[in-house]
From TrEMBL, chain A:
This is ATP synthase subunit b. F-type ATPases have 2 components, F(1) - the catalytic core - and F(0) - the membrane proton channel. F(1) has five subunits: alpha(3), beta(3), gamma(1), delta(1), epsilon(1). F(0) has three main subunits: a(1), b(2) and c(10-14). The alpha and beta chains form an alternating ring which encloses part of the gamma chain. F(1) is attached to F(0) by a central stalk formed by the gamma and epsilon chains, while a peripheral stalk is formed by the delta and b chains. The gene is atpF. The lineage of its organism: Bacteria, Bacillati, Actinomycetota, Actinomycetes, Streptosporangiales. Residues 57-124 form a coiled coil. It is found in: Cell membrane.
UniProtKB/TrEMBL annotation, chain B:
One of its GO terms (cellular component) is proton-transporting ATP synthase complex. Keywords: ATP synthesis, Cell membrane, CF(0), Hydrogen ion transport, Ion transport, Membrane, Transmembrane, Transmembrane helix, Transport. It comes from Streptosporangium carneum. GO terms for molecular function: proton-transporting ATP synthase activity, rotational mechanism. Key component of the proton channel; it plays a direct role in the translocation of protons across the membrane. PROSITE patterns: ATPASE_A. The chain crosses the membrane at residues 38-56, 93-118, 124-143, 164-183, 189-211, 218-236, 242-260. This is ATP synthase subunit a. It is a multi-pass membrane protein. Belongs to the ATPase A chain family. InterPro entries: ATP_synth_F0_asu (IPR000568), ATP_synth_F0_asu_AS (IPR023011), ATP_synth_F0_asu_bact/mt (IPR045083), F0_ATP_A_sf (IPR035908). Its main location: membrane. Pfam families: ATP-synt_A.
Amino acid sequence: MIQAASLLAAEEGANPLIPHTYELVVGVFSFFVVLIVVGKILTPRIQKTLAERTEAIEGGIQKAQEAQEEAQALLKQYKDQLAEARHEASRLREEAREQGAQIKAELREEAQAEARRLVEAAHAQIEADRQQAFAQLRAEIGRLSVDLAGRIVGESLEDEARQRRTVDRFLEEIETTSAAVR
Amino acid sequence: MSTLTLLASGEDQFTPPGLELFDSPPIIAGVDWFTKPVLLALLSTLIVVVFCWSAFGNPKLVPRGVQNVGEMGYMFVRDQVARPFLGKDADRWMGLLLSIFFLVWIWNLMGVVPILQFPVASHIAFPIVLALTIYVLKVYLGIKHQGAIGYFKNMMFPPGLPKPIYVLLAPIEFLSNLIIAPFTHAVRLFANMFAGHIILAFFSLVGFWFLFEKLTPLGAPLGVVGVVMTIAMTGFEMFIQFLQAFLFAMLAAMYIGNSLHAEH
Amino acid sequence: MSEKKIRPEDDGRDFASAAWSIPSYLLSGMILYGGAGWLLSRWTGVVAFTPIGLILGVALAVYLVYRKYGR
């Protein structure tokens, strides 16, 4: 290449490998104009914009991530609350059921006690009535018996004491016979 | 290249284009320095500045229009050029690398823009300016970050080699790193654009010559081939132009990276 | 190689460094030792020094590349 070029240069007088001075000057001028405008002024601008863009994109991603995390936290919170509410509800239900059972048991007991009380009262009443009826009956029977005996015998049993003794004897007799019969 | 010497003087004979392609007379008579490559270099600077200003002048968080296109370029340089070689230092050098990439690409693209059709980098002065800037920066950064002695020691005496062999290898390292590498950095770009321009000029001249200048039944198919090849090679050149701009910026990033941290 | 630093970007960087340094090293080796051989040939008149120098230069460059980037 070099040889060929120098050969040609010898023949033609214009060696393409020898730079023209004015072209060097113009070359330096154009290069440094480009270097200052493109290299020194414009490149920092586009670099700044690119950096900002990267930042914006990364910021956007971060923001989205934050939003997602927030949503996740919220969801978790809701779920927790829901679970808590469910738990609470079931607890309340359980409690109510227990309370209900207790109330039922209490009521039943009360009712039974009441019933027992009523039965006892009835028993007592009946006993009292029986006693009273027995006493009345006893007096009535005595009077009737005396009347009957007086009428049958035809004699007036004026003597009170005798009369009473007689009646008592009579009644005792009846009682013992009824007891014996029984 | 030997075909270039076949420059014939006859008017009725097809003459392949040669080095005269790169001779550019002053556009305005009397103003010697104002030639086509100079005009295109200034125009490229204007294009890069205007494009970058409309893309990055007032950047929005949500990009639209030109900013989208500009950001594609920025991302490409950042992810394919800066980060692989500079790692965490990538952002600090993006200004330089972005300027180099855009400027070289537009320089190269001038080669396929209709009417203009001249790759600025095919004049070696322009690649030299960039390569020399990178070279100075590379040596400066190397000395700053590794110390004057450390820089040359790391460069010329890579660890892990048997001691006596350093005598033989250190000169190779020196020559390679400080002379050949920057030289090829500039020449690679220059040579690609130079050759590409000659190829495009050759095929378009074939098409023009055999279809318009000297239309003959025998020559016409050749002219058609020339036109087809011109179109195909234009597409290929656009790929090469992009690739060379990328490579130039990538090598710059590599040199800077190697100066910031010793290679091993 | 034992002092190689572990950095995440080391892989791509090493590969590209190697890919773009190899031609440069080969060229340097050839120019340096080929040139030295050529000078020796000029002084001693022994033509063989030039190809010997070229081959030595390439061999040294290949060895250097192998030790730096190989393995």
